[in-house]
Design goal:
Blueprint lengths: L1 H25 L7 E9 L5 E9 L6 E8 L8 H7 L1 H6 L2 E6 L27 H15 L3 E10 L1 H9 L7 E7 L3 H14 L2
Parallel strand pairs: 3-4, 3-5, 5-6
Antiparallel strand pairs: 1-2, 2-4
Helix pairs in contact: 1-2, 4-5
Length: about 200
């Protein structure tokens, strides 16, 4: 029980630190590092997900996309604050994308906590995997200077979303970074329940 508390503590300390430091760094970081745009990305069932795309203005070549999906709200970071928070990624050059998941904040649809994977036989069904797939597909067609490669990262619930995005992945999804996720436990339970019904 100590490990989840330790992870939560570190996460909270990091968030508090960022809340104090980002405004201080924001004035010294040029907003021209990124161009920030917003979109309501359509999913296969017509629901639209609120998405913010930061594209680097100084990229000299095509760069990958880093997708960050969350139920916690993407907030309203300026390009300078994002650059301050993600300095290494900014230096390496990434298109950084934040998205409110289905039913949360400015996104349409119904939120379902830890939405289970869809039945693959039901072609009209949706889950976090289809939403991730549809988002990536849209981003590849609408994000300037992307190199056709996408990574997903997340912590806590964000990791659940990243792992679910791997179930039926878009061919452009090349990397998934997860930390402190409930996904492994839930996948294990889902597999065990599925095996008892076969």
């Amino acid at each position: 029980m100590k490990k989840p508390i330790s992870v939560l503590y570190r996460t909270l300390v990091t968030l508090i630190f960022f809340a104090m430091v980002a405004p201080l760094n924001a004035h010294s970081t040029n907003d021209a590092i990124f161009t920030r745009t917003e979109a309501m990305i359509p999913m296969r069932d017509g629901v639209r997900l609120h998405t913010r795309v930061y594209t680097p203005t100084r990229a000299t070549e095509r760069v990958p996309i880093l997708l960050l999906r969350t139920p916690y709200g993407i907030g309203d970071l300026s390009a300078a604050q994002l650059a301050a928070a993600l300095q290494e990624l900014t230096a390496d050059g990434y298109n950084i994308v934040q998205q409110d998941i289905r039913g949360r904040f400015k996104s349409e649809g119904q939120f379902v906590m830890l939405r289970q994977p869809r039945d693959p036989i039901d072609k009209s069904a949706i889950d976090e995997s289809t939403d991730t797939f549809d988002t990536i597909d849209w981003l590849l067609k609408n994000t300037p200077n992307n190199n056709g490669r996408v990574g997903i990262a997340g912590t806590s619930y964000g990791t659940w979303l990243a792992v679910m995005g791997m179930l039926d992945p878009h061919p452009a999804l090349k990397a998934v970074v997860q930390h402190a996720s409930p996904a492994s436990v839930t996948i294990f339970i889902t597999v065990m329940v599925s095996n008892t019904h076969t």
